[in-house]
Amino acid sequence: MSLDEFSLIRRYFSDRASASVNSNVILGIGDDAAVIQPPPQVELVSSIDTLVAGRHFPDHTAASDIAYKSLAVNVSDLAAMAAEPAFFLLSLTMPAASDKFLRDFADGLFAAASEFEIDLVGGDTCRGPLSISIQANGYVPAGRFVSRAGARPGDLIMVSGQLGNAALGLALIQQRLEPDPGLGKPCIDALNRPQPRLDMRNLLRQYATAAIDVSDGLVGDLRHILEQSGVGARIDKQKLPVVDWIRQQDEYDYALAGGDDYQILFTLAAENCDQALEQALASGIDLTVIGEITESAFVMIDDDQQLDLSNYKGFDHFDT
Fold first, then answer.
1. I want to staple 108 with a disulfide (CB 3.0 to 4.6 A). Which of 38, 68, 167, 248 is the partner?
2. What is the CATH topology of the domain spanning 156-308?
3. What residue ranges of the chain are covered by domains with CATH 3.90.650.10?
4. What is the side-by-side strand order in the sheet with 131-141?
């Protein structure tokens, strides 16, 4: 297939992006830039991530999964700041303009865009090693965003969902683990099609003192909160929400440093814990208290032992 850049954009992206779900998009794909009219009394939240073949996803990953994940991880950043997705821009670099790759990529991209209610409003394409950059933008009511900088000593530490599933999925794909009935497809799906926790926006706005999405592993991402907030933390290994296999095999590195979970890690005042848990339960949101914020130090309690996490570094799943 021989398509120039503009023909490629028209064939695979422009027509499907024209059905905007966001009434604030005045001018989308097809001009030098998009034009957006933000709603009144909101603040704009922007995030950008680049995913590179062989680094952020295995080389043989399906094109539809690559596209879905590329958008999902950016939307996850918006969710962590309690923002509502609005529009995004795409920069796609690929070795060749393969019809099958582009068709499958567009299917995955627009499936995610529809699910997350976010509009593609522009972008760029280029020839080169496969990589995908997406800038995602969302809105949050003025003054209601959540950052990494508000945790205070005495706050409790909570996390949504389970930790370590995506890292297990990668280990299974790379055949570093034997197939196990308790793992398999759910873990591979967690890696290829992460689910941004958009269901937590209102909860975060109401209760969170600080928040981050878990993209680089629990320890690394909690460390970001501690550094930005100028505090320490104590977490309990036995309270980490993990699949039975991790607990039975005592393979907690998958949860502590595996990455790619895209769950929400946040802190809240201890007096608000019960109310937040009740509200979460009523909304079908799965939360676990895993520790508390302290004045200083970063440690993990494992029964009667205490592990210093200040210099903890887990394995790199792409370091072979």
1. 68
2. Phosphoribosyl-aminoimidazole Synthetase; Chain A, domain 2 (3.90.650)
3. 156-308
4. 42-52, 131-141, 84-94, 119-127
The set of residues, in sequence order, having a beta carbon less than 8 Å from that of 181 and lying 6+ positions away, is: none
Which candidate, 160, 189, 162, places its Cα nearest to that of 245? 162
For residues 188 and 157, what is the distance between their CA atoms, to the nearest angstrom? 27
Alpha helices per DSSP H over 126-194? 165-173, 185-192
Structure tokens at 211: 């928040």
The CATH H-level (homologous superfamily) assignment of domain 5-141 is PurM-like, N-terminal domain (3.30.1330.10)
How many other C-beta atoms can be found within 10 angstroms of the C-beta atom of residue 144? 16
pLDDT digits (tens, 9 = 90+) for 260-317: 999 999 999 999 999 999 999 999 999 999 999 999 999 999 988 999 998 887 544 4
Any idea what the Cα angle at residue 115 is, between residues 110 and 119, rounded to 5°?
55
Nearest to 264 by CA among 173, 159, 126: 159
Strands (DSSP E) found in the chain: 25-27, 35-36, 42-52, 84-94, 119-127, 131-141, 156-160, 208-213, 232-236, 264-268, 287-294, 298-302, 305-308
258, containing H or E segment: none
Residue 253 burial (CB < 10 Å; 0-12/13-18/19+)?
A: middle
Q: Are 36 and 88 in contact (CB under 8 A)?
A: no
Structure token pair of residue 232: 């320490």
Q: Please check whether residue 211 is in contact with residue 204, taking contact to mean a CB–CB distance below 8 angstroms.
A: yes
**What would the pLDDT profile of 2-35 be if each residue is shown by its tens digit?**
556 566 666 777 766 655 566 688 888 878 888 9
